[in-house]
Structure to design on (407 residues):
């Protein structure tokens, strides 16, 4: 792209300020900025001024979850079916580790955070330890696909390699990078992170399948006969991965996707709840949950929307490949480092704009059937989002201890 073409594009989208420092850049930086302008999709920035148009919800009705009693009654057959699929190499796992972990406030990838107190116990290590339980039970390794982003790829690969994948067979670990999106202020003006670079951030965890495909790893899935992918978040240190009983239940119920859910601990807890939307499985985010939905009861008199997702899904890959439409866009308020009027880098203490993200939870609505599968929260849900307080390093450490993990 030439300078003139860049100017034209920026003018069209009202982003001329992006070239403010162009004259100060050397040739290499100039070219890099022109390339970035060329590659950036700016159509979505318009939504910062029409946020209300983004997510128009359909009619919400309850979707029954498979609860603990039913799971326990079928444990043997579900587990046997799950182990059979794992042993046949039909199950892979996808670790979503492309996020920035801004709330945690660590410069390193979140997985490098040390949960230990008397010894080193990194988040990545907790996850691999959990996955190893299944490897031991099944007698074979599970292919693990690790999604990173431009911001943390090198550090993640270096760390896991240095740590020798915490005992996991490296032949079964595959990295791929997610795409990036520009970040803006509340009026949709792109922030600059350097004089020659627009501010970018990972485009949300919903892009994982497209990114996996772009990386060429879909061929590996076909070659290895992987039919199911267990997608999970990096920051739940009690995460059970490729859990045979969950895998078996989803397969036996012939669902396109299984979603692990926990009983909410309060009607207004900040988790997305599983439901039907216009007759298809869906997830309503906590901020879309009206008082009416919070108060609604099912035919047994129990709260109708009481099972929250924990970002642990088992997707049937063939159904993902057949998925036609693109995912809705979410504007997420975040703290975005930027260059001020004088060209100095500012790291804001409070949110100052939007990142533009697709979310994995929206994939559920594009699939014909979903099995919400209840798990015991104290055993499987210890999210590390903040340094202290709710969903924090502190609360997750407490839960690790409760589950007998030495810190
Ligand atoms: P969060 O939504 O908690 O985001 O991610 P985050 O970036 O880790 O943390 P904050 O909000 O900045 O504090 C939930 C999961 O989705 C992954 C994260 O790595 C985490 O496993 N994720 C998030 C991605 O892989 N890519 C993204 O673009 C965003």
């Amino acid at each position: 792209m030439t300078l003139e073409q860049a100017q034209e594009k920026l003018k069209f989208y009202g982003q001329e300020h992006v070239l403010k420092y162009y004259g100060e850049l050397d040739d290499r930086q100039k070219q890099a900025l022109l390339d970035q302008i060329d590659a950036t999709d700016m159509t979505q920035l318009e939504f910062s001024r029409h946020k209300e148009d983004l997510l128009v919800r359909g009619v919400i009705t309850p979707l029954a979850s498979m609860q603990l009693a039913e799971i326990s009654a079928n444990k043997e057959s579900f587990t046997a079916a799950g182990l059979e699929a794992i042993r046949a190499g039909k199950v892979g796992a996808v670790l979503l580790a492309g996020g920035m972990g801004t709330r945690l406030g660590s410069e390193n990838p979140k997985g490098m955070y040390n949960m230990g107190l008397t010894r080193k116990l990194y988040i990545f290590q907790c996850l691999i330890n959990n996955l190893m339980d299944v490897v031991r039970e099944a007698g074979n390794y599970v292919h693990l696909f690790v999604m990173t982003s431009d911001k943390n790829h090198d550090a993640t690969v270096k760390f896991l390699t240095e740590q020798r994948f915490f005992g996991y067979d490296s032949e079964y670990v595959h990295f791929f990078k997610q795409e990036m999106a520009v970040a803006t202020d509340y009026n949709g003006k792109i922030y600059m992170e350097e004089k020659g670079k627009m501010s970018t951030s990972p485009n949300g965890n919903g892009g994982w399948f497209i990114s996996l495909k772009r990386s060429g790893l879909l061929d590996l899935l076909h070659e290895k006969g992987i039919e199911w992918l267990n997608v999970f978040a990096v920051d739940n240190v009690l995460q059970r991965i490729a859990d045979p009983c969950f895998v078996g239940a989803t397969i036996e119920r012939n669902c396109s996707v299984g979603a692990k859910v926990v009983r909410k601990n309060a009607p207004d807890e900040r988790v997305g709840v599983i439901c039907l939307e216009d007759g298809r499985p869906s997830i309503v985010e906590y901020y879309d949950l009206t008082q009416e939905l919070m108060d609604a009861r099912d035919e047994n008199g129990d709260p109708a929307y009481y099972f929250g997702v924990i970002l642990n899904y088992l997707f049937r890959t063939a159904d993902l490949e057949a998925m036609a439409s693109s995912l809705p866009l979410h504007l997420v308020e975040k703290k975005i480092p930027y260059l001020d009027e004088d060209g100095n880098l500012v790291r804001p203490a409070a949110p100052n704009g939007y990142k533009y993200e697709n979310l994995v939870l929206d994939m559920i609505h594009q699939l014909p059937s979903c099995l919400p599968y209840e798990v015991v929260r104290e055993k499987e849900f210890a999210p590390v989002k903040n340094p202290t307080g709710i969903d924090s390093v502190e609360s997750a450490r407490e839960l690790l201890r409760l589950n007998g993990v030495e810190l």
Remarks:
- The CA atoms of residues 158 and 315 lie 29 Å apart.
- The mean pLDDT is 94.
- The domain at 57-402 is CATH 3.90.550.10 (Spore Coat Polysaccharide Biosynthesis Protein SpsA; Chain A).
- Residues 96-104, 110, 147, 178, 202-205, 233-235, 385 surround uridine 5'-triphosphate (CB under 6 Å).
